[in-house]
Every structure is written in structure tokens, then in C-alpha cells.
Amino acid sequence: MTRSEFSKEAENSAARALVREGLQLIQKNEQMEQLRNELDDLAVYIPPDMRKQYDRIKSTIGYAFSLDNTWDEFRIHFEQVHPSFLKKLMEVESSLTGKEKRLCSLIRVNMGTKEMASVLGISPDSVKTARHRLRKKLKLDKDDDLDSFIQLI
Fold it and tell me: Is 110 left (phi over 0), alpha (psi -120 to 50) or beta?
């Protein structure tokens, strides 16, 4: 392996690690949000003598949740690896929503459907539906591969 090839492989490896770290932050925060929502649902059943403990748990979750900035944190890591991707993507289709941009970013880092579902907090079938809608919005032909199209941006 030449020095150039080694350098490029090291750069690619670092890029993948950076993106995975950002994706883990997103997944953790989605789980924290789900936990916080479930705790809110239980609030009406908390007896008065346990209210302080409930409030401490909720405060701890809120603090842990606030330590990460979910998508913004991922976007920062992602843009270090793919500096102009989101800008070029918006030049292709300016009406993309935040969720669609996230989906495109996950496709760009070669995530599979199950991984995307986990990160986005949706079912694999919902990912497939979102991908189908994205193809339509990007005006791709039936024969055009969405992943290849995203990789070329």
C-alpha cells in the first residue's frame, strides 16, 4: 500500500468513526426522549410521597438529554466528512424537509434500512416509504438508484 493509499484509508476510517459517533448520539437522544415521554405518561400515577424521587429522575433524564445536541451534533460531524453535501443537496431540491435531509445524510454514509430505522426511531417499512417519497421528490426515474444518486451529490 502506498503512502497516499494509506493516508486515504486512514481518512476514510476516521470519517466513518466520526459519523458513527454522531449517529450514536442521535439514537441515544431518541431513546432518552422516548423514556422521558413514558415517564410523563406515568406522572399521574405517582403518589405524592414519591414525587421528589420522580422529579429527580426526570431532571436527570433532562440533564443527560441536554448534554447532546442530537442532529446538530451529527450534522457537525457529518459536514466535517462531507463538507458541502447538504448545500449541494439543497441545490438539487430546495424543498427537502429536515427529515428528508437526515435520510439523505444517512444514505450518504451507507447505512442500511434497519440502521436508518433505529437512528430515526421509525420502522424499516417507514424508512422504505420515506425513501420512496424522496425518490419522487427528487424526480428520479424508476430505473435510477437512490443510493447512487445520493453518493454522486
Answer: left
* Res. 69: pLDDT tops 60: no
Residue 21 · residue 68 · CB < 8 Å: no
Condensed to tens digits (0 to 9), the pLDDT of residues 90-146 reads 999 999 998 899 899 989 988 889 888 877 767 899 999 999 999 999 999 988 999
Its sign, for the CA torsion 132, 23, 111, 33, is negative
Q: Which three cell numbers stand for residue 68?
A: 447532546
In this structure, which topology does domain 83-153 adopt according to CATH?
Arc Repressor Mutant, subunit A (1.10.10)
Give pTM, 2 decimals: 0.66
How many residues appear in the chain?
153
Residues 6+ apart with CB under 8 A from 149: 138, 140
| Contact call for residues 85 and 79 (beta carbons, < 8 A) | yes
